Amino acid sequence: MDKIIFTGPVGAGKTTAIGSISEIPPVGTDVQCTDESIEIKEKTTVAMDYSYITLEDGTRIHLYGTPGQERFNFMWNILTTGGIGLVILVNKDHPQAIDELERYLDAFSEFIEQTGTVIGLTKCDINKHSTDISMFHECLYKRNQIFPVFEIDARESEDVKTLIHALLAVLVN
Amino acid sequence: MQIINDAITKLTDENNTKSGNQDEIINQALDHVLKDLMAQCENIKGAIISSVDGISCATALHDNLDQNRFSAMSSALLALSDTLMNESHNDLTKNVLIEANAGKIFIMHATDKLLLSVFIDEQANLGLSLAYAKQAIDKIEAILSAL
Ligand SMILES: Nc1nc2c(ncn2[C@@H]2O[C@H](COP(=O)(O)OP(=O)(O)OP(=O)(O)O)[C@@H](O)[C@H]2O)c(=O)[nH]1
Ligand SMILES: [Mg+2]
Predict the structure, then answer these.
(1) Range of the domain at B37
(2) Is B74 in contact with B117 (CB distance < 8 Å)?
(3) Where do the domains of chain A lie?
């Protein structure tokens, strides 16, 4: 089974991205936020997102989204088991976007070593705290983790498909 | 029940509403609900009240169990179960029951924002424990509806 995992911080757009390319009504486990993240949005994922897409050649790719909140990190191992690749989404307009990326690179380091990874920067249309894309390249270069980085809108299915195709291309090499 | 009634009286008292004491009163009252629950039955080994998004609000746990992890895991399980129930039966979960040789855990909605997880040992009577939990939920609802 080809299984890709979407991860990244709260509000990066994991649930949105999976929903936007989904062929079926996605399985979601979003509940109302009761902590400070309510300032970002009303609902947050507490267990997982699930959906699938079918590629032109008929291959079915199963998509799993993790919760973003650290307290659900027990789900991270459960969801990555058997996965073939990782998509890390980061809100590019987050004031500490680079730290956020590094937090996830660290948390998923074991999985990253075994598989392929691509990075999607979301909310590029917002420019309050936006970090330049070159800073993300620099961060990855310093860590010796050269992964493709894309600026995307998680609400646009074409953008999310680009990420998945890039990931599959990485996996072939 | 007296303490819970007192809490409800305090919550409806304007002075407390203004001074922002509410959270503290609620937490104390919720702690009490759990203490009562544990006192009712020695086979109930622990209980947690947490928010639907997995933050612990009140706990009565033996040993050094991590209330924060348990709260998060309970909310993940209940949310997944709700999704499954909704898609299969168009309904919400009454309770999630996990059984093992060493004991059982059940998780249920308490209010629309809170859930209750109860840990019982292998000798516990399940029906009775569920009934005690239901009573605890009635108290939680009473406390929260005083707001
Ligand atoms: N303006 C803008 N909004 C976006 C973009 N991508 C996603 N969003 C919005 O950002 C929010 C992301 O929310 P979710 O998809 O729930 O985020 P998540 O990563 O699943 O968050 P958690 O489950 O809480 O970890 C949604 O309201 C999206 O509509 C983007 O590129 N630009
Ligand atoms: Mg989500």
Answers:
(1) 2-145
(2) yes
(3) 3-172
β partners of residue B97: B106
Ligand nearest to C-alpha A7: 1
Three-state SS at B58: strand
Collect all residues from A whose CB is shorter than 8 A from any CB in B. Answer: 27-35, 44, 46-48, 67, 69, 71-72, 74-75
For the stretch B87-118, pLDDT in tens is 999 999 999 999 999 999 999 999 999 999 99
User: Which residues of A are less than 8 Å from B75 in CB distance?
Assistant: 31, 46
Chain A residue numbers with beta carbons less than 8 Å from the beta carbon of B68 are: 71
Q: How many domains does chain B have?
A: 1
Of B69, B78, B62, the C-alpha closest to B112 is B78
> What pTM did the predictor assign?
0.91
- Across the interface, do A69 and B53 touch by the CB < 8 Å criterion? yes
For the record, the structure tokens of A171 come out as: 């996996």
ipTM of the shown complex: 0.87
Instruction: Give the bridge partners for A119, in sequence order.
Output: A88, A149
- Interatomic CA distance for residues A10 and A21, integer angstroms: 20
Kindly report the protein residue whose alpha carbon is nearest to atom 22 of ligand 1. Answer: A10
Q: Which CATH class is domain A3-172?
A: alpha beta
Q: What is the pLDDT of residue B97?
A: 97
Give the confidence band of B18 by pLDDT, cuts at 50, 70, 90: low
For A113-157, what is each residue's pLDDT tens digit? 999 999 999 999 999 999 999 999 999 999 999 999 999 999 999
Instruction: Identify residues whose C-beta is under 5 A from ligand 2, the ion.
Output: A 14-15, 45
CATH of the domain at B67: 3.30.450.30
Q: Is the dihedral of CA B54, B104, B80, B69 positive or negative?
A: positive
- What the block records as the tokens of A110 is 């074991």
Distance B19 CA to ligand 2 centre (A): 35
Amino acid, single-letter form, for residue A147: F
Give the whole-angstrom CA distance, residue B128 versus residue B40.
10
